[in-house]
Give the backbone structure.
Amino acid sequence: MPVQPVAIAGSKILITGPTGQVAAPVIDAWAGTAELTALARFSDPAQRSALEEKGVRCLAADLADPTALQGLPDDFDYVVNLAVVKTDSFDYDLAANAEGLGRLMLHCRNVRAFLHMSSTAVYEYAGHEPRAEGAPLGDNHRTMFPTYSISKIAAETVCRFVARQFGIPATIARLSVPYGNNGGWPWYHLLMMEQGMPIDVHPERPNLYNLLHADDYVEKLPLLLAAATTDVTTVNFGGSQAVGIEEWCAFLSELTGLEPEFRDNPAAFGSLAIDSQRMHDLIGPTRVDWREGVRNMVTTLSPQLLKPGT
């Protein structure tokens, strides 16, 4: 049976990575309901001001800095770690994504639950075989993001060690492809189609992923927090439907009349579908059909591209 969600209303919650695509719908859903604190570098003052206007307390910190958490409260009920840096510097990215995570967990060791958002980029490429949580790990994203997969694997290791060593209930969620009315990978593909740019795909088609709509992940985060244990729960986190880049681009073409141009590239990310059995057992299936989600995304972001009557 799936777990029961934690209560967000009235809780004190720390969210790291609050200026990213994934965090935005979460903050919009929880602001005014929970007492939210956002932790980021905040290099863009406008992003900080926008969050503060929503009633979110903002603290500037660089997780790569060992002294960065000195002014951070330590009485949160929950921490949702969505922060990630991809500078291509292994020293900096490992310090921020792995060491910084460990320091954050130690600082917030009294939380009811700690949710660390990892990525399916930790898995070794294996063609069209859906990746279960016990599948081999590998440097999946090296061709585009040299430090990303290794940083994510290192962060998971730090998370498990700190949680088990200090008794901190934690969940590691391996995120597939998030998208919604604020964008995502299908949105970038639509922009490429509009500009007539070729879309690189791995030659072993179809290139399957599990699109996860913002409405679904906002609904599931309280369940992932509820699933946290001191032995650390690790679970794939994507939409229940596997869909290929080729298929969602064909649907974008159906909506807009724009045609995708695919270019085979062995260095492109290959298929990375997930085995969703553990996710379904733990937090239940997702609800948003990918076609509905993609249609709403285009209607929200680029209604002028829709064909008449679509």
The mean pLDDT is 97. Residues 89 and 276 are 33 Å apart (CA to CA).
